[in-house]
């Protein structure tokens, strides 16, 4: 793991405020957006308590945040530059196929290898990708619609997080409320490994 100054990184006051701002925009409870005051007060108080209770206030390399995002790899140029009168080929595939990438970074700015989920029903789906060109350590998996599921959450936790977070304990992993993060197996494994 790299040793970086946390005063300007994700664990800095600015980084935390940015995270809270994003959480305020995205956090939902029973289908309605939570109030700004409630999210920031509750979230920061709970996070602050966890950091103090575990002695992690000044140990950013032990504070992790992960989130998944949807990516589409189809090329969609808005404009093409060419000489006047020259024919231009600017076609893209009609594929609207998407992929999911779960990324995890600690408050010191150290990034774990990505967890990529491609659309498919078997491991053969992964073979159509240039996996050798992916960042070192990228972990590949598949799902019928390329969505994160509870099983894939477990797979990420065991094959990416635990193998890359280091042996030092305790550590904090901040997750959103996506259903792939809310699984008994993941929590059971976490308790067993600590």
UniProtKB/TrEMBL annotation:
Domain DDE-1: 97-186
Molecular function as annotated in GO: nucleic acid binding
Family annotation (InterPro entries): DDE_SF_endonuclease_dom
Protein name: Jerky protein homolog-like
Species this chain originates from: Plakobranchus ocellatus
Lineage: Eukaryota, Metazoa, Spiralia, Lophotrochozoa, Mollusca
């Amino acid at each position: 793991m790299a040793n970086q100054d946390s005063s300007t990184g994700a664990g800095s006051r600015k980084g935390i405020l940015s995270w809270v701002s994003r959480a305020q925009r995205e956090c939902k409870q029973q289908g309605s957006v939570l109030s700004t005051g409630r999210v920031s007060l509750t979230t920061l108080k709970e996070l602050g308590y966890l950091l103090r209770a575990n002695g992690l206030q000044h140990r950013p390399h032990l504070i992790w945040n992960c989130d998944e995002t949807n990516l589409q790899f189809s090329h969609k140029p808005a404009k093409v530059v060419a000489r006047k009168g020259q024919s231009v080929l600017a076609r893209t595939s009609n594929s609207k196929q998407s992929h999911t990438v779960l990324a995890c970074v600690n408050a010191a700015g150290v990034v774990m290898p990505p967890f990529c989920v491609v659309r498919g029903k078997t491991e053969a789906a992964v073979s159509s990708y240039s996996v050798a060109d992916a960042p070192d350590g990228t972990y590949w998996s598949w799902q019928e619609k390329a969505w994160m599921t509870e099983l894939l959450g477990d797979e990420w936790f065991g094959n990416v997080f635990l193998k890359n977070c280091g042996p030092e304990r305790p550590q904090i992993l901040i997750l959103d409320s996506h259903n792939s993060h809310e699984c008994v197996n993941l929590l059971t494994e976490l308790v067993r490994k600590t």
